[in-house]
Amino acid sequence: RPRSHTVTTTSSSFTANLSASSSTLAYDREFLRTLPGLLMVIEIVLGLLVWTLIAGTEYFLYPAFGWVMFVAVFYWVLTVFFLIIYMTMTYTRIPQVPWTSMGLCFNGSAFVLYLIAAIVDASSVTKELDSHNYNSWAASSFFAFVVTSCYAGNTYFSFISWRSRTLQ
Predict the structure, then answer these.
(1) Hey, CA dihedral for 153, 40, 94, 105, is it positive or negative?
(2) Which of 6, 72, 83, 146 has the highest local Cβ count within 10 Å?
(3) Could you give the CA distance from residue 46 to residue 138 in angstroms, rounded to a whole number?
(4) Burial class (CB in 10 A: 0-12, 13-18, 19+), 32
(5) What pLDDT sits at residue 121?
């Protein structure tokens, strides 16, 4: 006697939501043409310079340069992460996150910690420490201050955005 095979399929709201949210991500080409987008690209490029100039030396012998490395690498990774979020417009798909507040906190903390790291970097550069690494450390100090000013600019733009969001 042949057996009857019955297959029943059901669709849950989870799979419906998953299929709706897995569509292609948008790409915001105009973001890099804005001043905050341009500042982010400069932060990434010059932040990379800061930590590669230090990483190419014997920085591990001096704790101050370890701190500068930590701040530079930490904020470099996070800035790349935020640039991807803004470029792919992922923030529009996660409305539960207060993106304007998060941007303000991120840029504000980056500005403060990069300022401290740049001051520590500049004050630690002396010819007596190691003349072989002097030029790399001096250059990293210069670029750390430039990156600090970029984060200050983005903090300002984040504050303006946050302020206009809270007034509505």
Answers:
(1) negative
(2) 72
(3) 14
(4) middle
(5) 93
More confident residue, 13 or 48: 48
CA 165 to each of CA 23, 53, 73, 90, 101: distance values in angstroms, whole numbers, following the listed order:
28, 39, 31, 19, 9
Residue 61 pLDDT > 50: yes
d(CA 66, CA 51): 10
Query: What value, to the nearest 5°, has the Cα angle with vertex 161 and ends 158 and 164?
Result: 145
Do 151 and 110 form a contact (C-beta atoms < 8 A)? yes
Residue 89 region, left (φ>0) first, then alpha (ψ -120 to 50), else beta? Answer: left
Domain ranges within the chain, ordered by starting residue: 27-97, 98-126+140-161
Helix axes 35-55, 134-167, angle to 10 degrees: 150
Alpha-carbon distance 74 to 30, whole Å? 26
Supply φ then ψ for residue 157, to 5 degrees: -65, -35
Yes or no: say if 44 and 86 are a contact pair by the CB < 8 Å rule: no
